[in-house]
């Protein structure tokens, strides 16, 4: 007897709440779950599966692709192509978006933006990594697919989620009605509901930032880091500093424990390092649905009007009060 509700059972149950939906989004989430289980299997035996190390090519980001970047990319594109509900995949690992031309998909109405493997620098050192996905509805099935179907504001997302391949493997997603977390039970190969209706821990006491870039941070960010480190018992400071280097893992921890994640503009990344379409928007949707906030320092991440598929943005995401304190300090410096 399975004690916990499986992802499939949960989706069917929630499906009943959308009487007019015909199950396409549910099948799309199922397809993503299938690919996640395949990636998880390789992650769990990475050291034995010749899946570590460099793939031997660079992606459009100018990054040295890891074997697992490419493997994960292939698995998610394959599952989405087979599933028949997705008409376009836009992946970190491909310069352009990919039209899915399998017969069933021609009328498919969903677009998936995906970071197949997030935190690649952590793969070879056995530290948590993840996958991030964002789902949009195409503007119209009566007109050919064009860039405007993909370059939509984050507020248009119909669903967003991540998988974190950590001590346990979890899938966390939202369809705009709260956030739910599922833990993979390897003994039955099912994601089971373990974290219903997740909300960000109100007692935010952690800040996550790569302080190695300190000299290049805007003055307001430097002032905020100093604020985090000051002694003040009334506001639970100093906060703890925690930085894993995989955005999904840092955000997942901050969701559960409370905190703020900051990736400001730096010398190497004058527009910020993290990508709007398949890192910042999906995680912003989830954190907002969990009661938090996601900003580029002065505007809501999900209101940014995308112009490029791989465009980057500074991001400050987590507890509302912490993000607003940061925004105040940035505004004071200008
Ligand atoms: P990806 O592995 O998908 O390219 O993303 C890596 C990102 C993100 O996961 C993480 O928060 C950030 O890079 C870490 O950057 P730094 O190493 O510059 O701190
Ligand atoms: Mn990358
Ligand atoms: Mn990433
Ligand atoms: Mn990636």
TrEMBL record:
Q: Where does substrate bind?
A: 118-121, 210, 243, 273
Recorded catalytic reaction(s): these are: beta-D-fructose 1,6-bisphosphate + H2O = beta-D-fructose 6-phosphate + phosphate
Keywords of the record: Carbohydrate metabolism, Cytoplasm, Hydrolase, Magnesium, Metal-binding
Per UniProt, Mg(2+) 1 binds at 92, 115, 117
Q: Subunit notes for this chain?
A: Homotetramer.
Q: Which HAMAP family match?
A: FBPase_class1
This chain belongs to the protein called: Fructose-1,6-bisphosphatase class 1
Q: What is the lineage of its organism?
A: Bacteria, Pseudomonadati, Bacteroidota, Sphingobacteriia, Sphingobacteriales
| Gene assigned in the entry | fbp
């Amino acid at each position: 007897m399975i004690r916990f509700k499986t992802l499939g059972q949960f989706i069917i149950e929630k499906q009943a709440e959308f009487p007019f939906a015909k199950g396409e989004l549910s099948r799309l989430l199922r397809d993503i779950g299938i690919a996640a289980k395949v990636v998880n299997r390789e992650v769990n035996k990475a050291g034995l599966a010749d899946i570590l190390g460099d793939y031997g090519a660079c992606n459009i980001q100018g990054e040295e692709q890891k074997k697992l970047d490419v493997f994960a990319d292939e698995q998610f594109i394959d599952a989405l192509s087979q599933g028949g509900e997705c008409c376009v995949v836009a992946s970190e690992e491909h310069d352009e978006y990919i039209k899915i031309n399998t017969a069933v998909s021609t009328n498919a109405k969903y677009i998936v933006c995906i970071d197949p493997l997030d935190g690649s620098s952590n793969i070879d050192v056995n530290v948590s990594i993840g996958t991030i996905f964002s789902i949009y509805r195409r503007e119209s099935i009566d007109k050919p697919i064009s860039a405007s179907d993909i370059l939509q504001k984050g507020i248009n997302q119909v669903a967003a989620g991540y998988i974190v391949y950590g001590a346990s493997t979890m899938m966390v997603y939202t369809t705009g009605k709260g956030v739910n977390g599922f833990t993979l039970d390897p003994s039955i190969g099912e994601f089971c509901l373990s974290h219903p209706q997740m909300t960000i821990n109100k007692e935010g006491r952690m800040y996550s930032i790569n302080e190695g870039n300190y000299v290049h941070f805007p003055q307001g960010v430097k002032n905020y880091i100093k604020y985090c480190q000051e002694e003040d018992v009334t506001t639970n400071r100093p906060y703890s500093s925690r930085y894993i280097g995989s955005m999904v893992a840092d955000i997942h921890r901050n969701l559960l424990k409370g905190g703020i994640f900051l990736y400001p503009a730096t010398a190497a990344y004058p527009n910020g390092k993290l990508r709007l379409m398949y890192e910042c928007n999906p995680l912003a949707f989830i954190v907002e649905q969990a009661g938090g906030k996601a900003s580029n320092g002065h505007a809501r991440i999900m209101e940014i009007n995308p112009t490029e598929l791989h465009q980057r943005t500074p991001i400050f995401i987590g507890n509302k009060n912490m993000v607003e304190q940061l925004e105040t300090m940035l505004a004071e410096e200008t």
